[in-house]
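quick q for whoever's on today - can somebody do inverse folding on this one?? i tried earlier but teh output was garbage lol. C-alpha cells:
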C-alpha cells in the first residue's frame, strides 16, 4: 500500500481570509442594491409599454410616457392598448414611490457631510454602502484591486503584455467610479490625478476611454485616502461642494 501524500502546507500569501460584513453593513448595502433593482424594473415595464404600442398601434411612445403631462396625450390610443398601459403605469408609479423613499434614505446618510464637487450625495452614499467600511483596506493596492480596474497581464518568459482590465471586484463600484470620473474631469480641473494624465486624456477617443478607466481606479484610491483621513480635499486638488 503506497504511503499517503503529505498535506500541503498553508501558504498565507495565497490564502486570504474574506471579510464578512456586519448585519448593519449588509442592511445598508441592501438599500443601495434594492434601488438599482427597482430602477431596472421600471425600465423593463417602460420598455414593455413601448413594445405593446409599437406592436398594436404602430406608433412610438415618448420617453417617460407615464408622466402626468405625457399621459394626457395618450388618450387617443386604442382603448384596449390604453388599458394595458394603465396597468403598467400603476406599477411604475408605485415603484417610483419606493424608489424616491430609498434615495432619500441614502442621501440622509451623508447629508451635511463635506464632499467634493461633482460627487453627489446619492453617489457618495451608494459608494459608502457598497464599500461597507473604507478602513477595511490597508493600502492603495487593496482598494485598487477591489474596483476591478487593474489591467490584466499575460506574460511568458521575457515577454510582457498588458491587456484589458480584469473586472475582478465589485462591478457596482466600478460603474459608479467611471461615471464619477467624467464629472470630475468637468468640475474638478485641479484634480492632481487627472493632471498627471492630461496628455493621455487629450490623445484621441480610444486613449481617453482607457485613461478614464485608469482614473476610476485612482479615484477609488483618492476617496479611500480622503474617507480614512489620510489626505484632505486640498491635498487631492479637489474643490468642496
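ok took a stab at it. sequence:
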Amino acid at each position: 500500500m503506497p504511503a499517503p501524500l503529505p498535506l500541503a502546507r498553508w501558504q498565507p500569501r495565497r490564502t486570504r481570509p474574506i471579510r464578512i460584513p456586519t448585519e448593519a453593513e449588509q442592511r445598508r448595502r441592501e438599500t443601495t442594491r434594492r434601488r438599482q433593482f427597482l430602477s431596472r424594473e421600471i425600465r423593463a415595464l417602460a420598455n414593455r409599454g413601448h413594445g405593446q404600442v409599437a406592436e398594436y398601434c404602430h406608433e412610438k411612445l415618448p420617453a417617460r410616457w407615464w408622466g402626468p403631462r405625457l399621459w394626457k396625450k395618450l388618450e387617443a390610443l386604442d382603448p384596449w392598448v390604453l388599458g394595458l398601459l394603465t396597468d403598467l403605469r400603476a406599477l411604475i408609479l408605485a415603484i417610483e414611490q419606493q424608489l424616491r423613499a430609498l434615495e432619500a434614505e441614502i442621501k440622509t446618510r451623508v447629508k451635511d457631510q463635506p464632499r467634493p464637487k461633482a460627487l453627489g450625495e446619492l453617489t457618495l452614499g451608494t459608494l459608502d454602502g457598497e464599500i461597507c467600511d473604507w478602513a477595511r483596506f490597508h493600502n492603495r493596492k487593496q482598494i485598487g484591486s477591489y474596483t476591478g480596474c487593474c489591467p490584466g497581464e499575460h506574460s511568458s518568459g521575457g515577454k510582457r503584455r498588458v491587456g484589458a482590465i480584469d473586472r475582478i471586484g465589485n462591478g457596482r463600484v466600478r460603474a459608479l467610479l467611471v461615471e464619477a470620473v467624467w464629472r470630475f474631469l468637468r468640475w474638478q480641473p485641479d484634480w492632481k490625478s487627472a493632471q498627471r494624465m492630461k496628455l493621455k486624456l487629450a490623445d484621441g477617443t480610444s486613449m481617453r476611454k482607457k485613461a478614464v478607466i485608469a482614473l476610476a481606479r485612482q479615484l477609488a484610491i483618492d476617496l479611500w485616502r480622503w474617507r480614512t483621513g489620510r489626505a484632505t480635499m486640498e491635498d487631492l486638488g479637489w474643490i468642496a461642494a
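fwiw The chain has a mean pLDDT of 90. also The first helix runs from residue 23 to 56. so keep that in mind when u check it
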